[in-house]
Specification:
This protein is of the alpha/beta class and 217 residues long. Helices cover 31% and strands 31% of the residues. The structure holds 1-O-pyrophosphono-5-O-phosphono-alpha-D-ribofuranose and uracil. The site of 1-O-pyrophosphono-5-O-phosphono-alpha-D-ribofuranose has 22 residues, from strand 5, strand 8, helix 4 and helix 6.
Length: 217
């Protein structure tokens, strides 16, 4: 039996469609064109699910039949923040759902030898403390990069419970590291894999997401 997820972690339902999309991007023989296309399909599902977790307020509108409809509208402003480089692949999926959404960037790179994250740069919307933040990174391995990015957001006075971390593939170790430190933010992921190998890569995983999306043939 699978251990229960912490309450602030949401894994997309394991539909046939999602399983098929994940199988394509996990396959080492999938070329870059297909990797981009099918990753984008999963990113779209993640963004749609992430938006389901944003709060709404009541809103009444009048329809063309001159009838009042008691509906809702999103409460508050949002922005996206991508962890460069791989997180940038998720920006278009967010833009496709949220027209002219503001996007901030945090450049964090894992050291290839130690797998420890290093923060190089951040540029965030000036009013980010007043927004819900959709934090974008496809891979959650040790959790080091995500934790560093969350520290940057909190230092900019983003409220922890206004952070939604959208992620394609997570390891149990990464989920534990992030949720042990932060219990109020939410993680939305498409898959929680078995674990990490000795190079701190996710297994079965899909390899280096950034290389496969941006540079490999
Ligand atoms: C990858 C990935 C995450 C990080 C995950 O980025 O996109 O940011 O590793 O690993 P962690 O949970 O152990 O920190 P990487 O630093 O390789 O850079 P890239 O985005 O340029 O591929
Ligand atoms: N970064 C990746 O792109 N893949 C992993 O499995 C771990 C870190």
């Amino acid at each position: 039996m699978k251990p229960e997820l912490p309450p602030n972690v949401v894994c997309l339902p394991r539909t046939n469609q999602l399983e098929a999309l994940l199988t394509i991007i996990r396959d080492k023989d999938t070329n870059r064109g297909d990797f981009i296309f099918y990753s984008n399909r999963i990113i779209r599902l993640l963004v749609e699910e992430g938006l389901n977790h944003l709060p709404v307020v009541e809103k009444t509108v009048t329809t063309p039949t001159n009838t009042e409809f008691e509906g809702v509208s999103f409460k508050g402003k949002i922005c996206g923040v991508s962890i460069m480089r791989a997180g940038e692949s998720m920006e278009q999926g967010l833009r496709d759902c949220c027209r002219s959404v503001r996007i901030g960037k945090i450049l964090i790179q894992r050291d290839e030898e130690t797998a420890l994250p290093k923060l190089y740069y951040s540029k965030l919307p000036p009013d980010i403390d007043d927004r819900y933040v959709l934090l974008l990174d496809p891979m959650l391995a040790t959790g080091g990069s995500a934790i560093k990015a969350i520290e940057v957001l909190l230092a900019h006075e983003v409220k922890e419970d206004k952070i939604l971390f959208l992620n394609l593939v997570a390891s149990p170790e990464g989920i534990e590291a992030v949720t042990k430190k932060y219990s109020q933010l939410k993680i939305v992921t498409a898959s929680i894999d078995k674990g990490l190998n000795d190079k701190k890569y996710i297994i079965p995983g899909l390899g280096d997401f950034g290389d496969r999306y941006f540079t490999l043939p």
